[in-house]
Amino acid sequence: MSLLTHLLACLFGMGSWVSINGLWVELPLVVPQIPEGWYLPSYLSVLIQMANVGPLFVTLMHRFRPGALNEAAIIYAIIGLGTAASFLLAFFWKETVVVAGAPRSVALLVLTFFLATVDCTSSVTFLPFMMRLKTQYLTTYYIGEGLSGLLPALVALIQGVGVVHCINSTRFLNHTLNSSDSSVTFDLQAQYQPANFSAEVFFFFLSAMMLVCLAAFLLLNYHPSVARERPGGRRTNRGKDKSERDRKWAEQKPMMDTYRPASQKRSSFGTGLYSWTQVFYIFVILAWANALTNVVLPSVQSYSCLPYGNNSYHLSATMAAVANPLACFIAMFFPIRSLLLMGALTVSGSGVGAYIMGMAALSPCPLLVNETSGGVIIVLAWVLFILTLSYVKVIIGLILRDEGHGALVWCGAVVQLGSLLGAVTMFPVVSVYSFFSSGDPCNTRCE
């Protein structure tokens, strides 16, 4: 295997969700300086789901007009759009426009929609592109996709985002002319520390990451050593035309293969290796895993962790981001394509997720809130949750990769569908009905 190809596949995968992941971790710095305040996360959730028009369009084109879209051209376009939007964000994220008599961060919201469109569409374009390389490079791509969440989180930690110090605060009550009637109370007040560098610098970093993704994609297309890692083997000048024909065949092949003899297939999906019941089972698990890991549990992470202290919150967020690429790395050496194991890991991960959700529901006074063991358990729960379900997602990707180009397009579409269903479920629960409550990190008292 070519180490260069592995590196390029990883860098290519890092560009898939780095922009939106970076925007989420930067919220503690952005929110205090814009008129939307902490309503911004809710707006972002809605914008990200609206951006699913991108993958919907690509999926429908692949289904009804196979081969009509130039996959490489679409990838160049969305990476270029992501780079430009991240760069412009550094200049305009604080700019406001008066709408309906109130100032609104129109530039921030519009550019965020473009970034969300880029990242959502990458699910149905980047994955199918990896069909052009050997199977082992798909796992490396997933490692890069995991790093797209880890790297911005590490940079945000260096930046000092969300670091809170509890300082003594004195309050005077019952003010009268007679000082003896006044009472004094001493409280702790949460104070966010200034960042080590500005949000503008962070957005420039995101733009640079998209440029790295673009460079990696160029090399994956044109570097000679990468050409030797294609399924057809070493490509020479005489074999160039054949490789181009193979590419077009892969993109034009319908998602539902109806041309194989019925006696040789269990269904018309892909190669026909899996029955329709098994295909349905795989896609349900894929949608479920992505709903939990992309939307449902992340939307309550602060509620589940902050009661145990800021250290537990930051440690759980960082270690969960590490667990994602770690699961992909494990899958590189142990790619077990077992539907039974997939189901068992999904049940186990969902059970751990249920514990996390339970602690979030009990916030600000969850179990073991005043014990060190409580913080340790919640951090381990987040690591195990992300580790198990990330491994499941990688294995499903490998299974669908074996089923062909169209199966990977469906894979990306179901990923976005799962995230959409998760957002539709959690948005009213968290933002409209305020089912979860957060405590003051310095003053919450639990008996």
Task: Detail the topology: elements first, then pairings.
Layout: H1 3-14, H2 18-25, H3 27-30, H4 40-50, H5 53-64, H6 71-92, E1 97-99, E2 102-104, H7 106-122, H8 126-129, H9 136-159, E3 164-173, E4 183-192, H10 199-222, H11 224-227, H12 240-252, H13 276-296, H14 301-305, H15 310-333, H16 339-362, H17 372-402, H18 405-432
Antiparallel strand pairs: 1-2, 3-4
Helix pairs in contact: 1-9, 1-10, 2-7, 2-9, 2-10, 4-7, 4-18, 5-7, 5-18, 6-7, 6-10, 9-15, 13-16, 13-17, 13-18, 15-17, 16-17, 17-18
Descriptive account of the structure:
- It is a single chain.
- The protein is mainly α.
- It has 18 helices and four strands.
- Strands 1-2 form a two-stranded antiparallel ribbon. It has a two-stranded antiparallel sheet with strand order 3-4.
- A hairpin with a 2-residue loop joins strand 1 and strand 2 (102-104).
- The protein is globular, with a radius of gyration of 24 Å.
- This is Riboflavin transporter.
